[in-house]
Amino acid sequence: MDPAAYLAAHREEQLAALFALLSIPSVSTEPERAPDVRRAANHLADFMRGIGLEHVDLYETGGHPVVYGDHLHAPGRPTVLVYGHYDVQPPDPLALWDTPPFEPTVRDGKIYARGATDDKGQMMMHLFVAQGMIAQGDLQVNLRFLIEGEEEIGSANLAPFVASHKALLAADYVVVSDTSMLREGVPALCVGLRGMCGAEFTLRTAEHDLHSGLFGGAVPNAAHELASLIATLHRPDGSVAVEGFYDGVRELTPAERDQFDRLGFSDEEFLAQSGAFALFGESGRTTLERVWTRPTLEVNGMWSGFLGEGRKTVIPSEAHAKITCRLVPDQDPAKVAAALETHLRRHAPAWVQLEIATGAGDGGYLAEPGHPALAAARSALRAAYGKDPDEIRMGGSIPVVTMFRGLLGLPTLLMGFGLPDENLHAPNEHFSLENFSKGMVALWHFYQSA
Amino acid sequence: MDPAAYLAAHREEQLAALFALLSIPSVSTEPERAPDVRRAANHLADFMRGIGLEHVDLYETGGHPVVYGDHLHAPGRPTVLVYGHYDVQPPDPLALWDTPPFEPTVRDGKIYARGATDDKGQMMMHLFVAQGMIAQGDLQVNLRFLIEGEEEIGSANLAPFVASHKALLAADYVVVSDTSMLREGVPALCVGLRGMCGAEFTLRTAEHDLHSGLFGGAVPNAAHELASLIATLHRPDGSVAVEGFYDGVRELTPAERDQFDRLGFSDEEFLAQSGAFALFGESGRTTLERVWTRPTLEVNGMWSGFLGEGRKTVIPSEAHAKITCRLVPDQDPAKVAAALETHLRRHAPAWVQLEIATGAGDGGYLAEPGHPALAAARSALRAAYGKDPDEIRMGGSIPVVTMFRGLLGLPTLLMGFGLPDENLHAPNEHFSLENFSKGMVALWHFYQSA
């Protein structure tokens, strides 16, 4: 049976299996959701056993378990390590979802649920294809699945697991479907990623909050200090004002710039997709440069003082901020984090106490242009979509890509089927049914020719 | 009999009556305590009837009842409206009390109980003095008592009550004992209060939060915009940068400045009391000027983006801030709020959507220097304490003072007997027995000469 026909004939059972997994609120960022995260892992392992994968098991880590399974019956043929994650982002703010985040539903050709596109939907496509190829006796490649539960919290326990299970994970390359296409209808291969580093800090101006009547006007206010400090991080031209932040950042070559121009990227479409009220970034740079090739510094969250309803006339004594930086190749994450910490300490007044925690970081990534898997993926995508794939980069980070290169020496093929406006990490996350189907056809072709 | 001797001879019955009221947990902020609040009101009314007050009654409001009683048998003499409140703050955290908050006890010359100083203790002093003066046939002034049960929750129902009972409350001026002395042993008259106005706003840069990998570097970040906007509100010298903010603010006269200097105020003590890591305010101003005579603008709370545990790489689309300003006499609260709104709109970039709500405000208060009640109070305090009273101000607001001026056209005499370290609104609230006794002697003299 033709892959497309076979996959279409099994659409209902695929959706049922996917919805079952999407219904489990495996929010790894929330400690109280740990039982749900484990439930998702067990559910996934059961599914993998059910479709004929072997050596399926949960591997305990310092955090949420890793799910592994393989099918190694193609001697002499390549071994592909498929990586994905079964954990998801928190669904807040809940009020902005049109349908509940953990009650998957199809509307207008889209699957709506937290995790629909990031990454349960995309990860399950590989399992449905493996299921079909095994059932059809058509699986002529060796597959290992490594599905983790901590991608949304930084994959802290994955590197130790990979380091201590190198034999289990031996492969020729890694394939990940956790990225987006640039535009509807045109498949994409992602050849570049940004890295990340971050810091979280608490700023204190007093032992406790103070009454603004008794003390207002004569003591520092932590909210004011935080605002002033955050305001020093960028220049009015949109660039980052942290000293040393741009050290090592490569400028685009003329060839890369030409290739960017050929992608038919539209600022208007990007703006519409974003839902932002305007574009804003480093002056003198195009939007694609800004999101693919330039490092950024973003406050992801900040708070101080009274957050409840009504009025409370306090002078806040504490303020908090969470910051992450997106990094590009040749920036050193540890150096950038240290530069950020230095900047914060240098710009805080003497009376401000600062407690800064900088987490581990990741560098950026650029694919090897001549790798055979890249060629195989191009053909498979062309076959499924009838169009040459865009060669794109991503402004996001996939820390595991750096980790697989570092620990296993493997390159990673990033073949993603999401769309840029699918609200990942936001309310009303969804995944296009069209890309769900065409993507599986592409993956089937890919595994046949890889 | 001499007032001091009479009052001392009745000390035991005064303490018994006060303790009975202090034992009732009339916590107005906790809805489940409503029956206790009402019990306190009834108890108080019974006590007022018992000492010979007339027309004693509970008046229902939209919330907790008002207790009223009077003694109007001094034709041709002034009528004094005594205001106080029988409700108290919550006692939490209970674990920090040395003795239970609603089991009043005397230790080291202090009455320990929730409400001891704020305001049951101070309010009952007026009733004990009235009791003694009536018993001695010595009450030569007309007294009206207005004791409310919602002071700790903002007195929302008091203004409507006062507005609809103007005849019942007709008087020459108001007396309130709900403020503190500046230092032990020296009585005080409070002649100035700050007013207040405020604004709460929401700032939006996009329809929803955005993924910092996909969009970071190319769209605005609401947290950055909020920080930049908050940072424009003050100048580096600590002054408020809002145009028109200081319109109408009076400079201290040399005489007022001298009087401030004589108060023996210590920055070191103030800093130690505050728990702040440093003093900070408008440069070129003393601490007393800053908290008593200068308007302030404080962010009481602000937040944006992800506030949970861990990392979430969002670009926040919304940010919120709550601001209140402490105002001084001759500032117009509505104008200051409007100036703040104008400032926020002027300093926000075009792509930022701002939703601003400014609430009702209160002007500051300065006593009329030549008012006869002020002179009578000075003499009475001198007679009781053997010392001239400090003429002080308060950085906080007492909204009823503005309300009495607005609705009844009456000035308010603020003659308080608390001390600054008596833990009002905190565990181990207490009230000095010395000020309880001397204060009653002062009130007796005051009512004789008023």
Question: Span from first to last CA of chain A?
Answer: 20 Å
Work out the radius of gyration of chain A. 23 Å
Greatest chain-chain contact: A-B, 96 and 82 residues
Structural class of chain A: alpha+beta
Describe the 3D structure.
Two copies of one chain form a homodimer. With 450 residues, chain A is an alpha+beta fold. Chain A has two domains: 3-193 and 364-449, 3-Layer(aba) Sandwich (Aminopeptidase), CATH 3.40.630.10; 195-249 and 295-358, 2-Layer Sandwich (Alpha-Beta Plaits). Chain A contains 14 helices and 18 strands. Chain A has helices spanning 3-9, 11-22, 34-50, 120-135, 158-163, 212-215, 222-231, 254-262, 267-274, 287-293, 333-347, 372-385, 399-408, 433-449, and strands at 54-59, 66-71, 79-85, 105-107, 110-112, 142-148, 173-176, 188-193, 195-204, 210-211, 296-305, 314-315, 318-327, 353-358, 365-366, 390-394, 412-414, 430-432. Chain A has a six-stranded mixed β-sheet, sandwiched between helices. A four-stranded antiparallel β-sheet of chain A has the order 11-13-9-14. In chain A, strands 4-5-18 form a three-stranded antiparallel β-sheet. In chain A, a hairpin with a 6-residue loop joins strand 1 and strand 2 (66-71). Chain A is globular, with a radius of gyration of 23 Å. The two termini of chain A are 20 Å apart. The model of chain A has no long low-confidence stretch (mean pLDDT 95). At the A-B interface, strand 9, strand 10, helix 6, helix 7 and helix 10 of A face strand 9, strand 10, helix 6, helix 7 and helix 10 of B. Strand 11 of chain A pairs antiparallel with strand 11 of chain B, so a sheet runs across the interface.
